[in-house]
Design goal:
By secondary structure, this protein is an alpha+beta fold. The chain has ten helices and nine strands. Strands 3-4-5-6-7-9-8 form a seven-stranded mixed β-sheet, with helices on both faces. A two-stranded antiparallel ribbon has the order 1-2. Strand 5 and strand 6 form a beta hairpin. About 20% of the residues are buried.
């Protein structure tokens, strides 16, 4: 049988509280028993994400510490219920406070879990095959349609070859993956962000900020060019610490789209 190697530190109230309450399902069990006595099978059904073995073990520990009591009815077949004790009930204000805190923290936790879905990796030139190139161009088109409202479909078609060449030739290409699917990318060359595009389904999820932070930390980026007619992008880069130092009436290819050169 497993026995704890370290004795419980009875001089630390936090350690005692964790000893009693530590366990993923203990707070939930107490919360449910406050509603009324429950059979083990009822608790198993209430906590479907936990195995019966885990629930039974945590019931045993709560009973050991006097937070709940086991009631055995002298009938055939045997009938067992669990009830909350006064000591267990004294923990409910803490459980409720934890519940309220958890509700308030939920948006931040969702954002943390959302970020864990995504992976950013550098794709070398020899790994930018036809399939990846095609997917990144599709992302570029959808992103441009959603953000560059000053461009027509004819403009987008005409610029596609330029975007394709940039994807293949840019020195550093960072691709954002959602599981096995690319959903955005950033190209960097000579300390300058040359392109940053995300699929519209992934706008406003903090991925653009994460890419730019990577560019700062790993690639010493200082510069970026932004279409003046894309005010959301201008505002985004300003929030990231860039400032306009020059305005050009046309882009680098001579197209009549004013460009703002920005520096960090």
């Amino acid at each position: 049988m497993y026995k704890k190697k370290m004795p419980l530190d009875l001089d630390c109230g936090v350690r005692i509280a964790i000893e009693v309450m530590g366990g993923k399902w203990k707070s939930c069990i107490l919360y449910r028993l406050e509603e009324g006595n429950k059979r083990p099978s009822e608790l198993h059904r209430l906590f479907k994400d936990a195995s019966p073995r885990v629930i039974n073990q945590q019931l045993k520990e709560l009973e050991k510490h006097g937070m709940i009591r086991k009631i055995v009815y002298p009938v055939i077949p045997p009938c067992v219920e669990y009830a909350i004790t006064d000591d267990g009930r004294s923990l409910l204000p803490i459980v409720n406070s934890l519940k309220e805190w958890g509700e308030s923290f939920r948006p931040k936790m969702e954002a943390i879990l959302e970020k864990e879905r995504f992976n950013i990796e550098t794709v070398e030139k020899d790994k930018r095959g036809p399939m990846l190139k095609s997917k990144l161009l599709d992302i570029w088109r959808e992103s441009v349609r959603a953000s560059h409202h000053f461009l027509t479909e004819a403009d987008i078609d005409r610029l596609t070859a330029q975007a394709e060449s940039a994807l293949l030739q840019i020195k550093t290409l960072l691709v954002v993956w959602d599981n096995q699917h690319p959903i955005g990318f950033m190209g960097v060359q000579e300390r300058k962000i040359e392109m940053l595009f995300l699929h519209p389904d992934y706008f406003r999820k903090g991925l653009g900020k994460e890419l730019v932070r990577r560019a700062f930390d790993e690639l010493a980026v200082e510069f970026v060019d932004v279409n003046e007619q894309n005010p959301d992008a201008v505002e985004f880069y300003e929030r990231m610490g860039f400032k306009v130092f020059k305005r050009n009436e046309c882009d680098s290819e001579g197209n009549p789209f004013p460009i703002l050169e920005m520096k960090r």
